[in-house]
Task: structure prediction
Amino acid sequence: MTWQAFRVTYKLHSPLHIGYHKVGNVQRTRYFIPARNLWGAVTEALTRRDFATEVLHSQSPDAYKAVGDWVKTHCAFGYWFVEENGVLLAPHYQNGQLYYGQYPVADFERRYLSAHVTTALDPATTSAQDGSLHEVEFIVPYAFPDGTRTLIGGYVFLGEDARTQLGTEQAWLSWLKTLQVGGERRYGFGQLRLLSFKEEFKPEWRLDIDRPQISMKEGEPLKAHVLAKRIKVRGQIEPVVGRETFVSNTFGSRLNEGVICWAPGAVLESPSVFELSKSGIWIGIP
Result:
């Protein structure tokens, strides 16, 4: 299979919460969108717009699974990041301190993060129900303090079949002009609207094989979760586990098997080549 790479930018039109972990009553968010979340968002959008019937001619009783399998096979996603002035604010270390783009992590949080506090009510007392108070952290749709619209950008790789259906700006607009990504979607979180879609190529990408590969130099920061095997890296390690949807009306009903990964921003200690796996995690190539 051969692949083609596209640079995509969306406008964020509502708060964005990408589940990370819980600290006390606070549901923390990631500061980027992993490939797995993008796979889910694209699968949901295509399914709701009858992609299974109109394009795949699928007779499966579960269109969600049919579309999800097609997306996983024919599309590959890089991680998407907050974008500012055409630059992706990806994590990296500088002088031992974590940065997102040009911002130290504290400055990034001040500019792009906020939180929403909610609680359930006890109908018997019309007061807050015990243990129900929680705070949801999110990326804001307007940056502080200038109020500029928050942009989310990154790369998507399309195989031959996917290019036929999605490989032009008009086709992408037709099917994926809007996406809803991440958690708290019943409250309207995670609304993205397409700003630009254009072909792009970088010499460090190899696109003439079964899955896209990327070559990276010593000292470069990782831009995705990378399976913690066969590579030399300095940075944080974390287990990565997520929920999978196999039936349209049972969102996130099954946990996938967790894996141990280097977190985005970790620094390579030797040149390495990575494959973008179907799960969205990068895997080192010996």
The domain at 4-203 is CATH 3.30.70 (Alpha-Beta Plaits). Residues 35-48 form the longest helix (14 residues). The chain is about 20% helix and 40% strand.
